[in-house]
Amino acid sequence: xxxxxxxxxxxxxxxxxxxxxxxxxxxxxxxxxxxxxxxxxxxxxxxxxxxxxxxxxxxxxxxxxxxxxxxxxxxxxxxxxxxxxxxxxxxxxxxxxxxxxxxxxxxxxxxxxxxxxxxxxxxxxxxxxxxxxxxxxxxxxxxxxxxxxxxxxxxxxxxxxxxxxxxxxxxxxxxxxxxxxxxxxxxxxxxxxxxxxxxxxxxxxxxxxxxxxxxxxxxxxxxxxxxxxxxxxxxxxxxxxxxxxxxxxxxxxxxxxxxxxxxxxxxxxxxxxxxxxxxxxx
Length: 282
Known about the structure:
The protein is 32% helix and 12% strand. The chain has nine helices and six strands. The longest helix is centred in the last third of the chain and has 15 residues, at 214-228. By secondary structure, the protein is of the alpha/beta class. It has two domains: 7-113 and 266-278, 3-Layer(aba) Sandwich (Rossmann fold), CATH 3.40.50; 128-243, Alpha-Beta Complex (Aspartate Aminotransferase, domain 1), CATH 3.90.1150.
């Protein structure tokens, strides 16, 4: 496929979450470019959910696969251009990389500050709200839980036929999480998991964008489900996107969500230092 090509161009909008796999495709292309001595251009785009906040456990190299392309946290706060610089720089991928940087973007800017139109980067990523929720709610997709695929509001609702949405919303509201509310809902997915089945669950509502923490919120949802529905909630694949055994074990052991979040602090601080040489924006 690469015969007669001298340059590969990556011009794809990411959303700032480790398991959103456009970055994995970029890494594969970088490796192919290095193997075939091709130039590689990244036409950089803003990180829609901002470039300052970072959340979640940092991926171990031994867990790297197509849903985890590099040693980064779940919410990484980097653009695709910065990620390309980090991946090639840290892993010695000898691609002839050029990043065409964004003009006028600053790290603290979410998509709503850019003035750019929202164009769905994938069929179930239909708004900035859904992109912001995805690192926390999408994290639960490996379990027997609908995260709203097959509805008009993917990642804004979650539930299952076995779930008690009223109890779940009440427990989560009692935890007073910043920037988010929880409303009991009933919904019936038209596709994907639990297609055609009535699901009870919650609508996750962002009330303050500046304080909302999606991964922390997703972890609170997980620990609440564990507390309320330990027998019905199938957690065999909870580590599919999480890829962090200590966090998985802590959820299953019933540890408090904020205790688990605090356990990530050291590795996130080390990541903050690691990423510094590859940043392109203030």
